[in-house]
Amino acid sequence: MHATTPRPGIRIERYDTIVIGAGQAGLAVGYHLARRDADFLILDGASRLGESWRQRWDSLRVFTSARFTGLPGMPFPAPASHFPDKDELADYLERYAQRFDLPVRTATRVSSLSREGGRYLLDAGDVRYEARNVVVATGPFHVPSIPPWSRGLSPAIRQLHSSAYRNPFALPEGPVLVVGMGNAGARIALEVSRFRPTILAGPKTGNLGRTLLGRDIHWWLWPVVTRLTLDTPIGRLLRRRLARDPLVGVSEGDLARAGIERRGRVTEVRDGLPVADGVPVDVRTIIWCTGFTPDFSWIRVPLPLDGPMPRTRRGVVPESPGLYFVGLRFLHTLASAFIAGVGADAAHVAAQILHAEGR
Question: Most exposed: 34, 38, 100, 318, by fewest CB within 10 Å?
């Protein structure tokens, strides 16, 4: 690393490679770069590693067991059948970075990425970073997605996105509407239903049990999700068809036994109330489990998109040499967004970087 000060208040730091994001994807890339003694730095906007997990709702557990929750070189330190909670995972990420002495700089938010004279420029407050290679490992979860017509809801209804939900005790008394039938929506609805009348709205997504024939369901699925790549016709078909993931460990029967009322899509507002299946729903709280909208507007270099997501060749952006992505859903296989699946993509991207550097 070399540093200069071209003008007061701004420092320039130069590296061969900068990784943006110190979650599981960024740390996995760092692991493979560190093994080859590469010159690199990992930047993260949070003040502490694992903070994005710590800020999730209190009772959250990872949907995969410890067997499928480890990163390269360090299995998750728990029995294989254990489902880690969010704080256990956050602590694991901290220990992972410490164990492999990864160069992570926290509290450093990159506001823009541009290119000049064959190098990438990353603006981050009073420091400008320069690098030949940049790996974007910020994931797809950027801006909470809430339908714009929600602004017409009565001010008497408290609204919050799932990213702001912590536990049922922070909610007002009275009925709760959970919108979104993904894994987050189903689990939050189950928890809230113990303390509040609960309605869960959203189309059925299908479900998988935790186990099959006495084994973890992912033990059966792993050979499939890691082999159906975008290089295969079936893999490309699945990427188009699987717009949302099935529920894991939660069934419609579980929801019914919890006393949760099921509705279809919430489509509009009528007289200040949300309307589901054409009928207004009188509730005191709405929890939007409607996902996130990716935001890559801060990347100011050629970046083709496939819908809202970057279009890459297994994480490589041909239109911008030296720019890479890791941690996106189905980057190369169905396992790309799994904690234990991100390592393969990280290894590939690290190998491409080192090859370009002649190493």
Answer: 318
Q: Tokens 């003040």 belong to which residue? A: 47
What are the C-alpha distances in Å from 164 to residues 15, 144, 197?
A: 36, 10, 20
Calculate the CA 272 to chain-centre distance. Answer: 33
The residue type found at 283 is V
Assigned superfamily of 2-142+294-356:
FAD/NAD(P)-binding domain (3.50.50.60)
312 phi, psi to nearest 5 deg: -130, 170
Architecture of domain 145-205+244-288: 3-Layer(bba) Sandwich (3.50)
pLDDT at 138: 94
Mean pLDDT of the chain: 90
Beta bridge partners of 104: 42
Q: Where are the domains of the chain?
A: 2-142+294-356, 145-205+244-288
The DSSP annotation for 268-317 comes to: EEETTEEEETTEE---SEEEE---EE---TTB-S---EETTEE--BTTB-
pLDDT tens string 79-91:
998 999 999 999 9
